[in-house]
């Protein structure tokens, strides 16, 4: 699985968009980009994933660059409850390959 | 919405005792996983399970650990002869399978070995 690089921490004002970057320069053609988050010591929560195209769901948007070497998770209107560790993971899960968690980005949403 | 459920939420055990952590994956999922997270550290992969057998395991998953799916719904992690360093959050996850599908995690079991 390709490795990812994320900033260790970020701050965001409540109500503003939170843009979390991730570099994955060694991603291969069949690997997906997944985003999860973990609030306190709860189980990781799935947010969104994509292969090539930008994706949007009720939680967030995922922007993947054309060369697929980086991506950005966007939380459009961050709330205090979005304070968490956000993990960017690259994986090819066709045969149930594991997800490998790094250190992630600690996002602090402040009022 | 379907979810992965884990029991118990907190387990305290004495060193050397055996514990069984239980998970009910999402019903139509095919791939099952155990992860652990020692306090303040990363989420670490332990084992994956498919078609009633282990498909991959990490170096952490030694002979002290075993997994099984005894009845087609539950998925268990057994830790024999627990050690202090086994104290951690243990997360179960399940995935439907197929390209680009996502894994869903349970809320975890906090294991405390005293």
Number of helices of chain A: 0
Outline the biggest β-sheet of chain B.
7 strands, mixed
Helix content range of the residues of chain A, please?
under 10%
Unreliable spans of chain A are none
Rounded mean pLDDT score of chain B: 95
Order of helices and strands of chain B: EEEEEEEEEEE
- Biggest β-sheet description of chain A: 5 strands, mixed
Morphology call of chain B:
globular
| Unreliable runs of chain B | none
Question: Quick one: how many beta strands of chain A?
Answer: 9
Summed up, what is this model?
The complex is a heterodimer of chains A (111) and B (114). Chain A is mostly beta strands. In chain A, 0% of the residues lie in helices and 45% in strands.
Features:
heterodimer, A: 111 residues, mainly beta, five-stranded mixed β-sheet, four-stranded antiparallel β-sheet, B: 114 residues, seven-stranded mixed β-sheet
SSE topology:
The complex is a heterodimer of chains A (111) and B (114).
Chain A: E1 9-13, E2 18-23, E3 32-38, E4 45-50, E5 55-56, E6 61-64, E7 70-75, E8 84-91, E9 105-110
Parallel strand pairs in A: 1-9
Antiparallel strand pairs in A: 2-7, 3-4, 3-8, 5-6, 6-7, 8-9
Chain B: E1 5-7, E2 10-13, E3 19-24, E4 31-37, E5 44-50, E6 53-57, E7 65-68, E8 75-79, E9 88-95, E10 103-105, E11 109-113
Parallel strand pairs in B: 2-11
Antiparallel strand pairs in B: 1-3, 3-8, 4-5, 4-9, 5-6, 7-8, 9-10, 9-11
Tell me what you see in this structure.
- The complex is a heterodimer of chains A (111) and B (114).
- Chain A is mainly β.
- Chain A contains no helices and 9 strands.
- In chain A, the strands form 2 sheets. In chain A, strands 1-9-8-3-4 form a 5-stranded mixed sheet, with no helix packed on it.
- The termini of chain A are far apart.
- The model of chain A has no long low-confidence stretch (mean pLDDT 94).
- Chain B is built from no helices and 11 strands.
- The mean pLDDT of chain B is 95.
- In chain B, strands 2, 4, 5, 6, 9, 10 and 11 form a 7-stranded mixed sheet that branches. A 4-stranded antiparallel sheet of chain B has the order 1-3-8-7, with no helix packed on it.
- Chain B is mainly beta and 114 residues long.
- At the A-B interface, strand 3 and strand 4 of A face strand 4, strand 5, strand 9 and strand 10 of B.
């Amino acid at each position: 699985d390709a490795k990812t690089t994320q900033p260790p921490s970020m701050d965001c004002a409540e109500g503003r968009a939170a843009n979390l970057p991730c570099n994955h320069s060694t991603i291969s053609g069949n690997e997906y980009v997944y985003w999860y988050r973990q609030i306190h010591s709860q189980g990781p929560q799935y947010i969104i994933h994509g292969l090539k195209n930008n994706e949007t769901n009720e939680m967030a948007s995922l922007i993947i660059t054309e060369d697929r070497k980086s991506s950005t998770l966007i939380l459009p209107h961050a709330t205090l409850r979005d304070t968490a560790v956000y993990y960017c993971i690259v994986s090819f899960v066709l045969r149930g390959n594991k997800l490998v968690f790094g250190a992630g980005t600690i996002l602090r949403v402040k009022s | 919405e379907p979810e992965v459920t884990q029991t118990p939420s907190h387990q305290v055990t004495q060193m050397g005792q055996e514990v069984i952590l239980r998970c009910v994956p999402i019903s139509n999922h095919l791939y099952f996983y155990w992860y652990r997270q020692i306090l303040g550290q990363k989420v670490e992969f332990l084992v994956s399970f498919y078609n009633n057998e282990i498909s991959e395991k990490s170096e952490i998953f030694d002979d002290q650990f075993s997994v099984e799916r005894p009845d087609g719904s539950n998925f268990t992690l057994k830790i024999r002869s627990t050690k202090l360093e086994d104290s951690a959050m243990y997360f179960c996850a399940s995935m439907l399978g197929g390209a680009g599908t996502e894994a869903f995690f349970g809320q975890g079991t906090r294991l405390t070995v005293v």
